[in-house]
Amino acid sequence: MSTTEEPITSYAKAPTKTLTARGTTFAYRELGPKGGIPVVFFVHLAATLDNWDPRIVDAIAKTRHVITFNQRGVGASSGTVPDTIEQATDDAYTFITKGLRYDKIDIFSFSIGGFIAQDLVVKHPDLVRKLVLTGTGPRGGKNIDKVVGVTYWDIFRSVITRSDPKEFLFFNRNKVGKKAGKAFVERLKERTADRDKPISTTAFRTQLKAIQRFGRSAPSDLSVITQPTLIANGDYDRMVPSILSADLHQRIKGSELIIYPNSGHGGIFQYWEQFAPVAAKFLAP
């Protein structure tokens, strides 16, 4: 009697795995039905495998094979965090094509993950079928390089209020935003076993330098992106200014743009009930 193993559809229960490609051991998790083109998630500044909102991951994993991973030097991945987005892009390419051995993927990205995703599509257009860019902006985008000051200020504010920095960085500091921020942080705690290592202070600072360089670089020609693209953000993103989402929309022909009201960098997490089904439908096989 043969049995078919049911796919894992809860991110909180997806086991952490590792693979080694070109000398780097990458930590990753996968869930959802296997087969076909996977959706690879590119995470935000200072984030590890434990920083993805399970409500969004699980919604997409109902019908798609989802893979989340740590960049080199982050969490349980080995090596040193690169100080440029270009190198982070090359590392992601190595993980996907040499480690996982995929030649076609869909991408779901957030924040710095969106910077890497854009560079990856521009450099390797045949690799990507569909692209989701959230809370992000284009290379050379106005005021991206100011994220360092915003980040340190919000970390300071979180320390003196004994809060999670993401409550300040991702959400507005009004009644609605505070409630959404606390709910988001609680969702990230749903996984209780096999949690990832937090990012080191050195790695975090190196990522900030990479973002600063990205913001001060010459713009990429995003007109070469012809893949179906979904762009989303809150209307008051202090980390990657919301106007840059509109900028991306103008540069990427045929892209879709969603701006959620009364929300910040984490608009997709504040409005997960609306956004998750939209993202899942967009990424449908």
From TrEMBL:
GO molecular function: hydrolase activity
Presence of the UniProt keyword Transferase in the record: no
Record domain AB hydrolase-1: where: 39-269
UniProt keywords, alphabetically: Hydrolase
TM helices/strands, residue ranges: none
Pfam families, A to Z: Abhydrolase_1 (PF00561)
Domain of life where this protein originates: Bacteria
Protein name, UniProt field: Alpha/beta hydrolase
